[in-house]
């Protein structure tokens, strides 16, 4: 993990007064700070068979108590409305948690996971639940959490599962969403804290959220708290339900990939997670203690809203105290420590916030362009909000290099936010410049930036038209920035922008609404009269790609985003080329051995592909992976499959009907769930008395033969239906009453994740029995790359 690049773009403005490292002898404990906090280790995110996992809540708590101190069972909310044996799943989980709790020994917590396209959120200790079917909008969720006043946690923020609309800030919801998961995973390796989630943690802090980090296992199997060594460290006065909940409500946590490290972080006598009232210019005293016998720290970094303030490498101490003093540059600042151990395990402490008592704050300051030159007009964008439950009338002043530049009076209702306010500064001379924001003449925020003599290209990237901006595009944009070019995004309309060199238009994704994909007349006119370069790159919606090509006459067209690296002459960027290999899983009791896949193998070889039959799913460096109704996948293999897709691979995953309980629906849905899939396998059998090839379970859909297939459940929006039947129906062939009703039988679908694609089929269609009748459809699956 590259920790050196994790600071925010803000320049350092602190005065470091003193740093003192004390190598303590004896045990580091809370008594060093005249407090009685102890550290307990827990897992705040897990699932059971009450949703898409295994086992019961009772089994989860019983298992977890042997491996840690705290377990929260947080099944997916949309499963919890269905009773089990006539009993509410929510009430049964609460009762199981209370029964499992033994003061001084173990604490069981109950909750649920709310899921939507904007992100996933855990809510703890509540009988009332909210589902995405009722309230699928993030704003609706925040209004609900304010009403019920329950503790919540942002889960695994990132591109795959969402990052809560870039952590758009809701001050009143900030009172209840107090945790953020930056470590997530149940693979045997403890490497769960990802750079993407870490960066999103910093984004959340910069937007104004008061959240502390956690590391959890998100278990879907019977390995609650035992999957790996990742833990959420909880600083509580004792191991009781009341003390643990008090610690979580007050953000006294740290995220750890090590299961027994002890970390305490204090500021001016306040424990980590605290919000301390201080005035700008005040001196703050920070103190960190660390202890993990025979597991020394290697790197220690102090992060703040102003950037990295301290870094020490090759630390090589398994017990130490670090004391530092700083002066606060303004009225809103946070600090937290990052520690990387010699063995690679990472630990991230909760922040400590230093804020003025004034409740009106300024945050999320941005300048555009982010690397201005002397020719640029600088646009400063920021949010202003009222964090109190009373209306406020204030004066906001903005100073540039100490000179008053702008002033206005604001009337803010309780918890009101004014998003994306902006001022424009005429071109500045080369060098460093500082912007101060003052509320009622008290500085609440500042931003320092540098103006250069010259700059790279300005690239305006459209994101207003359901653009297919996937991981590959994001990687290219990151490379552009690293090579000195500036990335800008249109706010409301793709027209009227000055001082732009290039317009980059990734055409729309297959998902999304056509209304938003359409270009307005004024946008078409502006693009066709644009004096710079207009680059048009193919998105997944082939129809709109052709429409855009016809409308924008002066565009240079690219079939693949990878061609842009050459166009921009980005040096030093090695594009990862996938090996022309098709992996076919044969190690998980799959349908069809290689003996019955001879025609598929010959076809793939004719396309220049190498076919590899594999029994363990590791090191998957290839273009395709085919999983046919397998079972018994380890957590490591599931993570390997996810990585394969995110890196650009195409996964073809198939199940089969539940006749004689033959489909491995539960196992395969675990893989899809790990990909945040908008489609799942149903536990049913598809029959069709009209369109079949000899029996009602031999279904024909779009001319494709499906022998004893299951249907697909569409549970999200970003999915393309490839094949469906209007005459087929779903039946519960195994009689277990676990088939979910469907309005239309879908048998084949496709969605994108990261740089890759997932194709989901209700049954494998390429055995030697079916290959020739299905050849045209099979060719579309393997020629799409």
TrEMBL record:
Residues 42-118 form the Polymerase/histidinol phosphatase N-terminal domain. Keywords: Signal, Transferase. GO terms for molecular function: 5'-3' DNA exonuclease activity; 5'-3' RNA exonuclease activity; transferase activity. InterPro entries: PHP_domain (IPR052018), Pol/His_phosphatase_N (IPR003141), Pol/histidinol_Pase-like (IPR016195). It comes from Fervidobacterium thailandense. SMART domains: POLIIIAc (SM00481). This is Phosphotransferase. The lineage of its organism: Bacteria, Thermotogati, Thermotogota, Thermotogae, Thermotogales. It comes from the Bacteria. Residues 1-30 form the signal peptide.
């Amino acid at each position: 993990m590259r920790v050196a690049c994790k600071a925010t773009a803000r320049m350092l403005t602190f005065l470091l007064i003193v740093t003192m490292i004390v190598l303590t002898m004896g045990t580091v404990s809370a008594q060093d700070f005249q407090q009685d906090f102890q550290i307990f280790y827990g897992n705040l995110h897990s699932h059971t068979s009450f949703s898409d996992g295994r086992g019961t809540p009772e089994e989860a708590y019983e298992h977890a108590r042997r491996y840690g101190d705290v377990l929260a069972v947080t099944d997916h909310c949309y499963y919890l409305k269905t009773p089990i044996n006539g009993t509410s799943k929510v009430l049964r989980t609460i009762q199981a948690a209370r029964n499992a709790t033994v003061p001084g020994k173990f604490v069981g917590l109950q909750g649920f996971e709310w899921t939507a396209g904007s992100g996933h959120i855990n809510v703890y200790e509540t009988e009332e639940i909210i589902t995405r079917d009722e309230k699928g909008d993030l704003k609706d969720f925040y209004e609900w959490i304010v009403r019920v006043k329950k503790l919540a946690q942002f889960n695994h923020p990132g591109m795959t599962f969402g990052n809560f609309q870039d952590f758009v800030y809701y001050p009143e919801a900030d009172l209840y969403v107090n945790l953020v998961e930056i470590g997530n995973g149940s693979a045997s390796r403890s490497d769960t804290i990802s750079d993407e989630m870490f960066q999103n943690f910093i984004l959340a802090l910069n937007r104004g959220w008061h959240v502390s980090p956690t590391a959890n296992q998100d278990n879907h199997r019977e390995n609650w708290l035992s999957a790996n060594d990742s833990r959420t460290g909880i600083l509580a006065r004792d191991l009781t339900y009341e003390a643990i909940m008090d610690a979580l409500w007050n953000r006294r946590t740290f995220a750890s990939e090590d299961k027994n490290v002890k970390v305490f972080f204090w500021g001016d006598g306040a424990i980590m997670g605290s919000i301390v009232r201080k005035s700008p210019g005040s001196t703050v005293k920070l103190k960190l203690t660390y202890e993990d016998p025979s597991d020394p720290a290697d790197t220690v970094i102090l992060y703040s809203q102003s950037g990295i303030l301290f870094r020490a490498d090759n630390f090589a101490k398994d017990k130490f105290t670090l004391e530092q003093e700083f002066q606060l540059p303004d009225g809103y600042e946070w600090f937290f420590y990052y520690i990387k151990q010699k063995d690679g395990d990472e630990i991230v402490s909760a922040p400590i916030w230093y804020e003025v008592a004034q409740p009106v704050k300024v945050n999320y300051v941005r300048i555009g362009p982010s690397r201005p030159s002397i020719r640029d007009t600088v646009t400063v964008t920021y949010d202003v909000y009222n964090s109190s439950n009373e209306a406020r009338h204030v004066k906001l002043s903005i100073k540039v290099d100490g000179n008053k530049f702008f002033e206005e009076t604001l009337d803010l209702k309780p918890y009101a936010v004014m998003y994306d306010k902006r001022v424009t500064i005429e071109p500045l001379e080369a060098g460093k410049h500082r912007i101060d924001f003052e509320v009622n003449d008290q500085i609440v925020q500042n931003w320092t930036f540098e103006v250069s003599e010259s700059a790279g290209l300005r690239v305006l990237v459209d994101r207003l038209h359901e653009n297919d901006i996937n991981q590959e595009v994001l990687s290219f944009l990151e490379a552009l920035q690293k090579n000195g070019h500036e990335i800008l995004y249109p706010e409301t309309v793709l027209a009227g922008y000055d001082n732009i060199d290039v317009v980059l238009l990734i055409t729309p994704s297959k998902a999304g609404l056509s209304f938003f994909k359409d270009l307005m007349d004024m946008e078409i006119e502006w693009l066709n009269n644009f004096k710079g370069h207009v680059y048009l790159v193919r998105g997944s919606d082939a129809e709109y790609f052709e429409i855009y090509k016809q409308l924008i006459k002066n565009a240079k067209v690219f079939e693949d985003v990878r061609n842009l690296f050459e166009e921009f002459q980005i040096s030093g960027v090695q594009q990862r080329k996938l090996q022309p290999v098709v992996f076919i899983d044969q190690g998980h009791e799959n349908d069809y051995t290689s003996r019955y896949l001879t025609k598929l193998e010959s076809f793939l070889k004719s396309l220049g592909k190498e076919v590899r039959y594999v029994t363990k799913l590791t090191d998957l460096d290839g273009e395709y992976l085919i999983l046919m109704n397998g079972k018994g996948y380890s957590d490591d293999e599931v993570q390997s499959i996810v990585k394969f897709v995110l890196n650009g691979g195409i996964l073809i995953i198939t199940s089969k009907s539940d006749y004689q309980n033959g489909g491995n629906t539960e196992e395969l849905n675990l893989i899809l769930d790990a990909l945040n899939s908008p489609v799942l396998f149903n536990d049913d059998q598809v029959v069709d008395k009209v369109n079949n090839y000899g029996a009602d379970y031999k279904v024909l859909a779009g001319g494709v033969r499906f022998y004893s297939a299951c249907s697909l459940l569409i549970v999200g929006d970003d999915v393309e239906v490839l094949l469906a039947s209007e005459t087929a129906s779903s039946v519960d062939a195994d009689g277990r009453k676990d088939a979910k009703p469907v309005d239309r039988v879908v048998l084949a679908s496709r969605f994108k994740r990261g740089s890759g694609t997932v194709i989901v089929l209700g049954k494998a269609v390429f055995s030697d029995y079916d290959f020739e009748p299905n050849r045209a459809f099979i060719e579309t699956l393997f020629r799409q790359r």
